[in-house]
Amino acid sequence: MPTLADLEATIATAPSALVAFSGGVDSSLVAAVAGHVLGERALAVTAVSPALATGELDGARTVAAAVGIAHRAISTDELAREGYRRNAADRCYHCKSELYDRLAVLAAAEGFAATFSGANVDDLGDWRPGLRAAAEHDVRHPLVEANFRKQDVRRTATELKIPSADKPAMPCLASRLPYGTEVDPATLAQIDRAETAIKALGYRDLRVRHLGRLGKVEFGDDDLARARSAGARAAILEAVTAAGYADVEIDHEPLRSGSFTGIRRIPLAVT
Question: 122 burial class (0-12, 13-18, 19+ CB within 10 angstroms)?
Fold first, then answer.
């Protein structure tokens, strides 16, 4: 079983490092250990764009302050990339290319020797075109190098009392669109409004899948039973329609990250 000492030793091989920092548990663990091992020679960087959900930047700032690493927000413009807007199966490649291009400029300007991501061993078995962009930019994955799987990340983050230790995964808002549906700022904002409204009802782990007029809501295991009760359902439907969706559906199956990647445009039915 990999240990914190293994991760510390891995990170210590870099004289200095930027951490691509979303505020999720994986990048939070890398940031926490980098801040401890490298001190002022480490900087956590959060990319801000229309694809970042409301509250995620504030959450990242909170985690960075708690774990003791310097933090900076930068703007990225993945929507300027035709490959990203087209939203084919390699969308994440174009998104990560934009991010790592910006980080490379920052690293060169301020003398950081390495760029770290929060990818872990379990990510290597998924469809992750962003890893190709990372390889092209010589980005290092300390969790992979130290042989950390997701369960090891959660365990170690809990031991270190990192605030995001139990945070559900929160991929970018573009992941709510079926491949082939063009990504645009208005659609991302609509998804964000719907998800923000549902979170205000007390739910933590959810996605609003954008299917044209239909907003399909998926909940994690812990939230699904509550969401399906009559009173809760009415409030959820109201939240999603207020965001601009004509039709709303609550999925009967629990949320599974990555389950949407194979969905294409389909005929919509009023529910």
Answer: middle
% helix, strand, coil for the chain, step of 5: 50, 15, 40
pLDDT in tens, 92-101: 999 999 999 9
| 205, HSE (Cβ side, Cα atoms, 13 Å) | 17
Q: Please choose, from the candidates 76, 74, 53, 72, the residue with its C-alpha nearest in 3D space to the C-alpha of residue 61.
A: 72
Give residue 77's identity as a one-letter amino acid code: D
Q: Tokens in use for 146?
A: 């130290």
| 94 token code pair | 């174009």
Q: How far apart are CA 15 and CA 2, in angstroms?
A: 23
Q: Give the side-chain half-sphere CA count within 13 A for 253.
A: 5
**Angle (deg, nearest 10), helices 25-38 and 56-67:** 30
Please tell me the distance from the alpha carbon of residue 34 to that of residue 27, in angstroms, as a whole number. 10
Residue-wise pLDDT tens digits, 16-71: 999 999 999 999 999 999 999 999 999 999 999 999 999 999 999 999 999 999 99
SS3 assignment, position 102: helix
